[in-house]
UniProtKB/TrEMBL annotation:
Single GO MF annotation: oxidoreductase activity
Higher taxonomy: Bacteria, Bacillati, Actinomycetota, Actinomycetes, Kitasatosporales
Domain Alcohol dehydrogenase-like N-terminal per the UniProt entry, residue ranges: 25-141
Cofactor dependency: Zn(2+)
Gene3D superfamilies assigned: Medium-chain alcohol dehydrogenases, catalytic domain, NAD(P)-binding Rossmann-like Domain
Keyword annotations of the record: Metal-binding, Oxidoreductase, Zinc
Similarity annotation: Belongs to the zinc-containing alcohol dehydrogenase family.
Name of the protein: L-idonate 5-dehydrogenase
Keyword Metal-binding: yes
A Pfam short name: ADH_N
UniProt source species: Streptomyces naganishii JCM 4654
InterPro entries noted in UniProt: ADH-like_C, ADH-like_N, ADH_Zn_CS, GroES-like_sf, NAD(P)-bd_dom_sf
Length: 341
């Protein structure tokens, strides 16, 4: 079978790999689609993401959907052939965060295709993948595998909006209109936001944001853009650059909430800390997700408009060009690899 392995910075390979055997408690999944995530692109271009560095070859991919093939000993679940999405996180279940219902920040979690721990957790960009059977989620009626491939990034977006508190009737600012920013727009609308304003440098990215419910879009590099709001109730930073955080802190109302979702550059990032003080801004982080994965599948089933965010489906053999396309936000939003399974 073919798999998509990162061997180091800039060294992405499509390799012939042995088909895994499902171990105790595991299911074997025939992967159909794998979404290329910003973090996959970071491993490819920079050899790491955030503060996590690549230290050994790793199968990439954590946005994976397919059909069940078989089960290992002691595992059970939906019948073989059932279409499923794979929840990529396996929290430890015993740490204080797991006990306190914050499994997404578990201190010993295993996350598909992540170098956060060593040995790295191998990912799902392969034609067959063995994962804990309890990580599988059957797709709701009416949801096909292609749109379901957005379940993981949409879960991230839903979690960020949840971290913002009640957004019903609120004006929400989203900085960054990449796939995650666009999904935050959809998540905020679904949570009852009255208005969503989105900023980005690229007109093409802003078009994707409009397609999923952004009411106002702003060119981030144009201070004269008529779309800049005076003030917003909530801001979600989804660009991962310090300038985005700066815009959020400047535009959120006094006592408002800013959620940092985008992964900032490694190390120290300067920010306007005194605004946090003098305006009593709630500055919160949002990392991955937990039960939002089930909510994401339901929302995807109900929102065919989200299809607009899947901008290309590329055969796994052409993984490198798929990554180049995904990295070029002037030409793409979410790019899926097709493993044919
Ligand atoms: Zn992702
Ligand atoms: Zn834990």
């Amino acid at each position: 079978m073919l798999g998509c392995v990162i061997r180091g910075q800039g060294d992405l390979r499509v390799e012939e790999l042995p088909v895994p055997e499902p171990a105790l408690g595991q299911a074997l999944v025939a992967v159909r689609y794998g979404g290329v995530c910003g973090s996959d692109l970071h491993y490819w271009r920079h050899g790491g993401v955030g503060d996590f560095r690549l230290r050994e070859p790793m199968l990439l991919g954590h946005e994976v959907v397919g059909t069940i093939v078989s089960y290992g000993a002691g595992a059970r679940g939906p019948a073989p052939g059932t279409p499923v999405a794979v929840h990529p996180a396996t929290p430890c279940g015993v740490c204080p965060e797991c006990a306190g219902e914050r499994r997404n920040v578990c201190r010993d979690t295993r996350y598909l295709g992540s170098a956060a721990r060593f040995p790295h957790v191998q990912g799902g960009f392969a034609a067959r993948v063995a994962v804990p059977a309890e990580q599988l989620r059957p797709l709701p009626d009416g949801l096909g595998l292609r749109r379901a491939a957005l379940a993981e990034p949409l879960s991230v977006a839903l979690h960020a909006v949840r971290r913002a508190g009640d957004v019903t009737g609120r004006h929400v600012l989203v900085t960054g209109a990449g796939p995650i920013g666009c999904l935050v727009v959809a998540a905020a609308r679904a949570a009852g936001a009255a208005r969503v304003t989105v900023t980005d440098l690229l007109p093409r990215a802003l078009e994707y944001a409009c397609a999923v419910g952004a009411g106002t879009v702003v060119r981030a590099d144009d201070p004269e853009d008529a779309g800049w709001p005076q003030e917003v109730d909530v801001a979600v930073e989804a660009s991962g650059v310090a300038a985005g955080l700066g815009a959020c802190l400047r535009l959120v109302r006094r006592g408002g909430t800013v959620v940092q979702l985008g992964m900032l550059p490694p190390g120290q990032v300067p920010f306007a800390g005194n605004l946090v003080v003098s305006r009593e801004i709630e500055l919160r982080g949002a990392f991955r997700f937990d039960t939002e994965f089930n909510d994401a599948l339901r929302l995807l089933a109900a929102e065919p408009a989200l299809d607009a965010l899947v901008s290309a489906v590329v055969p796994v053999r052409e993984a490198e060009s798929a990554f180049a396309l995904a990295a070029d936000r002037g030409r793409s939003c979410k790019v899926l690899l097709d493993f044919g399974g």
